[in-house]
Amino acid sequence: MPLLKVNRERLKRSMDQISTIGATPRGGMHRLALGDKDRQARDLLKRWCMDAGFPVRVDPIGNMFARRAGRHSDSPPVVIGSHLDSQCMAGRFDGPVGVIAALEVLRTLDDQRVVTQAPIDLVNWTNEEGARFSPPLLGSGVFTGAHDLDFALRQTDKEGLSVQQELVRIGYAGAGPVTLPVRKYIELHIEQGVVLEQAAIGIGVVTGFVGIRDTKVTVLGQSTHAGPLAMDSRRDALVGAAGMILAAREIGLAHGPDARVTIGKLAIPSDSHSVVPGCVEMVLDVRHPDAHRLNAVVFALQQRFRAMATDSGLAVHFEDSWYYPPVVFDSGLRSQIAEAAAGFGYSHMELPSRAGHDALNMARVAPTAMIFIPCRAGLSHNELEFAEDQDIAAGADVLLAAALAAAR
Amino acid sequence: MPLLKVNRERLKRSMDQISTIGATPRGGMHRLALGDKDRQARDLLKRWCMDAGFPVRVDPIGNMFARRAGRHSDSPPVVIGSHLDSQCMAGRFDGPVGVIAALEVLRTLDDQRVVTQAPIDLVNWTNEEGARFSPPLLGSGVFTGAHDLDFALRQTDKEGLSVQQELVRIGYAGAGPVTLPVRKYIELHIEQGVVLEQAAIGIGVVTGFVGIRDTKVTVLGQSTHAGPLAMDSRRDALVGAAGMILAAREIGLAHGPDARVTIGKLAIPSDSHSVVPGCVEMVLDVRHPDAHRLNAVVFALQQRFRAMATDSGLAVHFEDSWYYPPVVFDSGLRSQIAEAAAGFGYSHMELPSRAGHDALNMARVAPTAMIFIPCRAGLSHNELEFAEDQDIAAGADVLLAAALAAAR
Asked: Which residues bind Zn(2+) 1 per the record (chains A, B) (predicted)?
């Protein structure tokens, strides 16, 4: 039997249509988890699935599952999908590519009247990004037991609205079991890096996840009025934090091409033009594929920050925020993905994921793998994020083949 | 006639009592303008004034005026006072010292049955700090025509609540004229610096205001995901801003002991642990007693920031936020304050104010002066802000004598 391919026109049409919901003027996406735009995107996905005859189940944390039945209705499903929520003013491919390609896989199997042994479930995970509710990967975290349902429902956004309130408001507070057995999990996603683009390779066979360790850093000085006190008598926490931000970059670069050190959140509680900051709060995000090297980077940063604080009469405190150790994906699924790519004649290579995805949670409960496709200049979490139609279609073809192999 | 002195016990009792409203665990004050605590403090002040027979008028922006009548009811009043609102988690002396001392002045004049020619008005200005509603000095700004009433009422806090809504909610949306003629304005305040403390001087005769220029600085790089893109390919706006924060301190120090450069507000719109910041917004606050030197500091900062941005592939934009040129206080009032201090045998010296006060607005419409008293270690906008009882009492004595001289 020749390898099945997805319907490229339908795939592109669906991508274009879902991309209008929350579209920004510069071609990006602003669709925060459980907001009105997320509701509209969920409603559209639900309608598409129902129209095609794939019943949709919503679980208590709002994860959406659309099922294409298999011969054995009792068999745990092969699950494929990703997320429809976005970061603030970000891109339209990060997440939706995996969800819409999964829908296209189900539709193509119907077109071709393919019967699988196991059911195949499309999934749309709740609050993958963590841009509105912390922590990220929330829906898959509840599904895989990383978080209690109650904990997740209690989380609030900046306005004090809880996950529970918002799920009820947008009509996605589902029922039924919080988790169910999964046969295999496969997620298609843009790379969000430049490895595939620079190698001119179309399909990334993801080997696993780099480890991620986040630390809350609090720099303490002395808050005072911006006018009277002489500048050389100040103990300015923001000046201290600025030195640490520059040191963080330097230490990250010094630990080689696999290390990433980022400060993406910084708050000054006093928040006034006329107050010398006495306190600055930052989040330090460190990533490395090797757990020991990861901890060495974190240790080096904390050592340096402590020394800098002492030198300038400041104090610094660290609080572990979260830690995802490095993950290695299922070797069988990786081989199937590589073989599928080769079968289609698509160039492919192995590479790790340096970003968190719901597959990180799923790898704890089921054989898991991911397929990456290139995105332009590695830009992501940015309105200018872009993936070519043919790369999305090739990724969907490989997802189809891998899901079929897993569900047979 | 011997010089009148205030009732020190009553002054201390009133200071202690008003300090309980919005008190923080470390002995500080959190009483944001037009919040519930500000309402309670206003209610207490109003009750004290009414009980003592000083009728209270509330104007359309919520400024409170309590009048002790003079012989000539048509004469413009001598106005004395300050503000009861505070910064976030700040001190309990910045503002209330001037209001409660003014109350004590009126009470002492009643005790001694002193008759003045002009009325003396105690004033409590609305939203001096600007911690909740921008701009600061809002109430005196409306009173002196620096801001339109409509503009002031439309300003909103972070939750989107307007000045107008909050004035109505707490019962301080007054009526009547927005402004009235003022004979003289005198404000007692803590120095918020270390000049008096280091010179061991009890009374500061304030010569005027340093100029203040605030600029919004926007640093633009490229927002991207914290994981995939190599660190040396990033254009991180926060790393760029960090260099500018250090340069701002260096340039401030290089411009001599009279220059102040502060960054007290910084926001990252993307605000996510996993997003390399593509944009950082800061407020640059520059102060200098000489207008030409002030502009030279601002120019040097902008030149340096532009060069730094260019060097690191970033962009930087500047937007003038506000400018208060330097102000020189009324020489007659300054002499009266110095003579009063000498009459009491209190040590005194001249010094400029490096912080903004409502007197800055009042100097545009009436002969104006300020009296400073020492505060410990120059700490202000800080919970540990502290002024000694005897310094507050000495300041109140001088305020009493200066007001009496002005109102005779």
From this structure: 83, 94, 189
